[in-house]
Amino acid sequence: MAFNIQFFGAAGEVTGSCHLVTVGNQRILLDCGLIQGGHQDEQRNRESFPFDPKSINAVVLSHAHIDHSGRLPLLVKAGFRGFIYTHRACRDLCRIMLKDAGFLSEKDAEWENRKRIRKGLKPVEALFTVEDARLAMQQFKGMIYAKKQRILPGVSLRLSDAGHILGSSIVELWLNHAGESHKLVFSGDLGRSGMPVLNDPVSIKQADLVLMESTYGDRLHRTWEETRREIHEVLSLATGGRGNILMPAFAVGRTQEILYLFAKHYKEWELDRWHIFLDSPMAIEATRVFTRHSELFDADTAALWRQHSKNTLLPNLHISRTANQSMAINRVHSGAIIIAGSGMCSGGRIKHHLKHNIWRKECQLVITGFQAKGTPGRALVDGAKHIRLWGETVRVASSVHTIGGLSAHADQTALKNWYSNFEGKPPVVLVHGEEQAIVSLSNCLQQQLSASVHAARLGETLTLRGSTLNIVSRKQHKNLIYG
Q1: Residue 395 and residue 446 in one domain
Q2: What share of the chain has pLDDT > 90, as a percent?
Q3: Which of these three, 381, 406, 431, is where a domain ends?
Q4: pLDDT band (50, 70, 90) for residue 54
C-alpha cells in the first residue's frame, strides 16, 4: 500500500500550514492556516484552494495559531462538511482567534472600501466574516491527549502535547488500507524543554514517516537563564529613563509567558516601579482560556497559580478591554510596559503604540517572537530606520531588543533531539521553515543522525511505499499558489 501527501502551504516558508494526506478513498487535511507576511503573500489567501474542499473527509488541526487554523472558515464556506479534530484547549482558543480574525477581516474590507468608493473602484469583500468563523466552529471535535481514536474508516488519530502553546499537538495518524498500514507523525509546531507555563514536548517512538517543522532549524536559542537575565537587563536599562517599553506579543502563548515571568520575578525585577498594560482583547480572552485549562500547566506554573489563586498575579496590571482604555495609554509618556498585539506589528493596537513611541529615543521596543518576512516587526528587527503606519512615515529612534530566547519553537538542537527518539530513523520531511533554516537542519540531521531528509516544496506530491519515500509530482511553483 502507498499513501500520498501533498504540500499546499508552509513548504519552503513558515506560514500557511496545509498538508493533504490521502490513503485509499480517505483524504485528511493537516492544518489549514493563513499565509502571513507582506501584501502579496496575504493576497494568496483569497485564491481558490488547490483541491476540492468537498472531497476532504476530515481535518486534523495541530494548534490554534492563525497560520495553522486561519483558513478553516474559508474551507467550510467552500463546502467542507467533515469534522475538525483538535485538542479541547485548541478548540476553545480557536473560538476566540477565528472570531477575531473574521472581525479584523471585516474591518479591513470596510476601511479599504472607503478608499475604493472615493476612487470609483469596485468594493472588495472580507476574506471571511465573524459568522463564517462561527459556522466553522460547529465542525470542531475536541479531543484529549494520549487517547487513540478512530476518526475515519482505516484512519486512527492520537494527539500528544507539543509544548508549543496551550492545546498544541503532535499528530499521530495510523493509516490502514487493503490489509497494509503506515504510521505518519506530524510534529506541528514543537515547543522547547523548560518553557514557562507548558509541559515539554512528548517524545514519539514509532513512525514510518515524520513530517517535522523547521522554523528555527538554523539557530540555537539562548538558555532560559540567559533569557531571563536579558529581560531583566532591558527593564533595568529602561528604569530611570523617561520612556515606555513596548512588547508586541502573540495573544496566545507569548502574552501568557510574559505575564508568568513578570509574576515569578516581580520583586527581583522591581516591576512595582512600572504600570503594566495588557492591551489586547484577544489576549485577555485567551488568558481566560488558559485558566480554564490549568491542568495543562507545568509543575512550576501550577504551583504559582495555586499560590495566587485568591489574589492577582500582578498587582499593577491594567487590563485594557475597550478602545478608549487603549487610547488612554497613549497619554502615558513614561513608566509603562505595554503588551499588545499583533506579535509581528502588522495590525492590532501595537501599531498605535508604535506611532506614539517608536520615534522617542528614550523608549524601548522588545521583540518577543518570530517575525515573518514582509512584516513591520521583521523590518524593525532588521534595523529599519523608518516604518510606515497608516500611510505616514515614522522615524525609528527607540532601542530595539530581540529576545530570541522567548521563542516557543524548538531550536536546531531540540529538533534534532526530538527526532532522535524515533526508532529506526524513519524518513523525515521538513516543513514550516525558510530555506536557510531547512538546509541547516537537513544537514544537521543527515550528518549527525544519518537521517533520510527531504525538504517539502509547494505543490509537491510524495508517496510512501514500505520505507521508501518517492516524489510523485512536482509542479511549477507559480501554478500552485492557491490557484
Answers
A1: no
A2: 78
A3: 406
A4: very high
